[in-house]
Amino acid sequence: MSSMNPAVERQDAVPRHAGTNAASRSIADRLDITVTDRIESVEDIWRALEEEGTASVYQRYEWTRASLPTLEINENRSPFIVTGRLDGRPAFVLPLSVKGRVFRKLSWIGGSHVNFSMGLYSRELLQGVQPGDMTRIMQRVCRMVPGIGYVKLCCQPVEWRGHRNPMFDLPHQRAMNPAFMMTLDGGFEATLAHGNAKRKRKKYRQQCRIADEAGGWKFLVPRDAEGISRLLDIFIEQKSQRLRDKGIT
């Protein structure tokens, strides 16, 4: 963002008035909030909140960082990453982006390329947030950086892993494009039974035949981080070659 300093725009928690204690103050007032266009400057708080397990894979630090160059070049959007600390402890990260110079639009970094968009929240914040808190938090954010014309935060789940999405405190409507998910419990046959199993089995047999003709295949389940990384590297290499063969760079 050309008008933002490379590091951080910061707004400390609202000062506590005499005669009040921390427990009686709203979460919105107790938060120290920062806005930055440099994802590297918030890596520590981001990874700490990843460990809370309250967001999807699309909000992981590595995933988001990898998408930023494409976002800036192809969509002319810049990072607008909001972080909050509650009494000094990591509370939330909102991975947003901003587009426009005069009339600015705020949206999730993932945009239309992800199934689920949401923030990363600490369990402490999710358990303590009250009606009106997220509205006040977003009001504070918009006051920090002038020129925000409107905020459009689409494709958010109502709840995630047993926690209600605090963003539903804001005005909202049902998304036009629903997102679907399923578990892989019970193994291959149980997973295949979801939906049109006959059609899926036919497609699976076709894929096996194509793989056999290409030299065979093996079904591998990586058991550790090293194995996962190795298979992902192989997949990316194969996918890159396939795109090059199609003339896509």
Could you characterize the architecture of this molecule?
With 249 residues, the protein is an alpha+beta fold. The chain has 2 domains: 161 residues, 3-Layer(aba) Sandwich (Aminopeptidase), CATH 3.40.630; 59 residues, no CATH class. Strands 1, 2, 3, 4, 5, 6 and 7 form a 7-stranded mixed beta sheet that branches. It has a two-stranded antiparallel sheet with strand order 8-9. β4 and β5 form a beta hairpin. The longest helix has 21 residues. It is globular. The two termini are 27 Å apart.
* CATH architecture field of the largest domain: 3-Layer(aba) Sandwich
- Total domain units: 2
The count of β-strands is: 9
N- to C-terminal distance: 27 Å
CATH topology of the largest domain: Aminopeptidase
Q: Give the helices and strands as they follow along the chain.
A: EHEHHEEEEHHEEEHHH
Q: Strand fraction band?
A: 15-25%
CATH class of the largest domain: Alpha Beta
The radius of gyration over CA amounts to 22 Å
The average pLDDT is 84
Low-confidence stretches: 1-7
How is the main sheet built? 7 strands, mixed
Helical stretch tally: 8
Helical content stands at 25-40%
Which structural class do the helices and strands define?
Answer: alpha+beta
Described by the principal axes of the CA atoms, the overall outline is globular
